[in-house]
Each structure stands twice: as structure tokens, then as C-alpha cells.
């Protein structure tokens, strides 16, 4: 057991903004610094709920908007115990999408914002959220955009507006990636995390 708990870092943002690339690079850099680090991605499509979510996102299965919302949340609760264990053991978690995606994407459909937040209550609160932004006209042109049901430009604009309601400067960093290289964005992320890491509470906090 390590004496210090692991840091919890979440990457958020619209589809094709570069979260997955940055999450992978971040894990590599933190490991190079000698920190035990694990990458977690939501939705985790490998579980039973993840399989249903995948069918929904790919358009194979239709589901009521409330049902799919709760499946995304359940997909996070499935990982809860394991995440607690890892954090307590001193492992840093880099998480590619989390509850903020859940609330932003579902509330962008018109569902009640508070209702969207409520099943997330009790999940682990991250120490830091890195909110990656870019010009939507650019991200919508990127390879693979359009493959899943939420990949429509007008909907992405609504999701962005919903994300804005969630921004909390006390633990969010907005990283504008427009016209920046992957390495520039990576450096900005490392700096942001360094600043946040000096201010981590001993105890784990919970949403919301
Ligand atoms: N998504 C993701 C949600 O609608 N709710 C959630 O809770 C999460 C975690 O799933 N368009 C949406 C956002 C994405 C899609 O994610 C799949 P990704 O990172 O593109 O695989
Ligand atoms: Mg996507």
C-alpha cells in the first residue's frame, strides 16, 4: 500500500477532439515519471452494460433516452469498487470520459439536467477535469466522425452548451486545442496537472 492516494484525472470534450490520444500520451508520461498509472475509458464496451451501450451507439438497438442514460451510469458504477482500490493503492487514474459526458450528452437531448446528475451521485469525484475544446467545424471533419448516433454537428453544439453548465473552475482546466499540435496540447495538460497535483486532498471526494 502506498501512503499517498492516486490522483484522479478526467479528460472530457466532444467527439473527435483528441481525448483518447491525449489520455494515452498522459499515461505514458506519468509512467515515465515513475508514477503507477492506469487508463480507464467510459463507456467500457467490454462489460454487459457496455455491450448494450455499444449496440445503441452503433444504431443496432433503439433504447429510451432514460434507459441509455442509466446504462452509461451503471457502466461507471460497475468500475467503482475497482477504482477505489486502485486509488487507495496509490495508482493514478487517467479517465477518458466520465459522468460529465453522461450529463452533457443526455441533457443535450432535452432531459432534465438535475435528473441526469442524480444517478451519478456517490461516484468518485476527480481531482482534475481537462476539458478539451476545438472548433466544432474541424472536429466534425475528422476521420471516423459520423460513425455513431451522436456524431452530428448540430447535436455536438448542444452537447457543448450542456458541458458549459458543468464547468467548475475549482477543478476544471479548459484546454483549447485549436491550431495546436498533439505535443503542444500534451505539454499544456502536463502543466495543468502539475499545478493541480500540489493541491490534492488526502481523502477521496464524491459527486456531486
Ligand atoms: N457518452 C459517453 C454518453 O452519451 N454518455 C456517457 O456517459 C459517456 C461516457 O458515448 N459520443 C457518449 C459520448 C460519445 C459516445 O464515447 C462514445 P467515445 O469516447 O466516443 O467512445
Ligand atoms: Mg466518439
UniProtKB/TrEMBL annotation:
**Keyword Kinase assigned:** yes
The record's EC number reads: 2.7.4.9
Gene Ontology terms: biological process: dTDP biosynthetic process; dTTP biosynthetic process; dUDP biosynthetic process
GO MF entries: ATP binding; dTMP kinase activity; nucleoside diphosphate kinase activity
Keywords attached to this Swiss-Prot or TrEMBL record, sorted alphabetically, are: ATP-binding, Kinase, Nucleotide biosynthesis, Nucleotide-binding, Transferase
Q: Domain Thymidylate kinase-like spans what residues?
A: 11-189
Alphabetized InterPro entries for the sequence: P-loop_NTPase (IPR027417), Thymidylate_kin-like_dom (IPR039430), Thymidylate_kin_CS (IPR018095), Thymidylate_kinase (IPR018094)
Q: In which domain of life is the source organism classified?
A: Eukaryota
GO cellular component assignments: cytosol; mitochondrion; nucleus
Q: What class of enzyme is it?
A: transferase
Stored CDD domains: TMPK (cd01672)
The record's listing under Pfam families reads: Thymidylate_kin
- To which pathway does this protein belong? Pyrimidine metabolism; dTTP biosynthesis
Q: Which family does it belong to?
A: Belongs to the thymidylate kinase family.
This chain belongs to the protein called Thymidylate kinase
Species name for this entry?
Answer: Dermatophagoides pteronyssinus (European house dust mite)
